[in-house]
Design goal:
Length: about 450
Amino acid sequence: MRKNTIHIIDSPYYEHIYGSKEMSQVFDSRRRYQRWLDIESTLAKVQADLGIIPREAAEEINKKAKLELLDEDFIRKQLALTGHSLMPLLKAVQKVCDKGLGEYIHYGPTTQDIQDTSAVLELRDATNIIAKGLIETEKLLLPLAEKYASFPMVGRTHNQHGLPITLGLKFAGWAAEIRRDIERLKDMSKRLFVIMLHGGTGTMAGLGDKSYETVEALAAALKLKMPATGWGSSRDSFAEYQNVLGVICGTVSRISNEIYQLSRTEINELHEPLGTEYVGSSTMAHKRNAEKCAMNVAVCRIVINNASLGMQSMMSEHERDTRAWRIDWHSLAESSVMTARALETLNNIVSGLDINENAIVANLEKLRGLLFSEAVMFYLAEKLGKLTAHEAVHGAAMRAQKEGLHFKEALLQDPKISGHVTADELDHIMEYSRHIGTSVRQVTDVINVAKALSTTDKELSA
């Protein structure tokens, strides 16, 4: 029988909305304990190689530091009794080691060394998963951008129809932002994936005369970098991770929300894909609600807000402050799991995106030619001057909206304008394909930038 759950990301009913099985495995409690034990075992090997502890001790520790060999009831009881997060685990290993060789486990480091190094390893795995999701999003968006590079649609500003853009340009804008998020992960990784093994106050004194050799060897074994100094009370790298996730979820929520908005009944241009068993409403059977998009925005808002927790954990005191890094235990895991979920959901949406081309074309004509106000103004500016032309076109536009006229009709009826432009000239001006600006070139540029930068994407899985 499944254990009762409290957090929504672990809910057996709603984890498909809030949680990611792949990411949850990274932060699984048992896996975390084993990761701590693995770091201790690797440290013992390093210290044996350097002649710091007996080889026999390192071998025994590596043999017995397996969670399945330990008395978990003992660990739980000791956690409650001691209030210490690591000592019960170490004592459990000591109990199963023969010849008293368990005395050599955790020989020199402090608790936070093990737990922070473990957290870095968790975040490395988490970053790989998030990067994989972002790269998949980009791969889904770029073909759509290319396919619709010159397909005109309404560009909207302040929730109103503005000027024509292309659907491909919209997709390209999303893809460009996703690519920037991928590059942020690469840049962040240079600072984040470093070891922590500097002891109680950061001097490495507990590791003895071979402290640097020990830390450097352990870092190499774990494939982490050696920092210039300890960072027990410096939480900036973890805060950066959470802020980068906040930015990523800002991107994901923007895309999800845009699809959500464009699925409105009166717009009807983009829709998330529907399953065969989809139900939009318990009462209104006709509803086609953008449920996945809506939930994605909600999930992303949690991650965005968690970024502030990362910043708060930076406010630590002196050389060590448990209050700071205990916050990370909550927010790092939650943000990672929810970001992975948001990307999984977004990729599901984009991979089956329902594009209503007929509605996109029809919406271009909703303002009956008014989308060409700027183009007409610049055409007339050559004859009337820019400010005079703007005033005249503005008057015709207001009259067209008030009296329900087509913009072309209002222009030709205006005595300030009619003598300077013919019906045929207006027909020529009012071709949507003539007013998409550099949309096609921008799409091409986005594709080329993505291709060039993707050559170093392998850094994220190294």
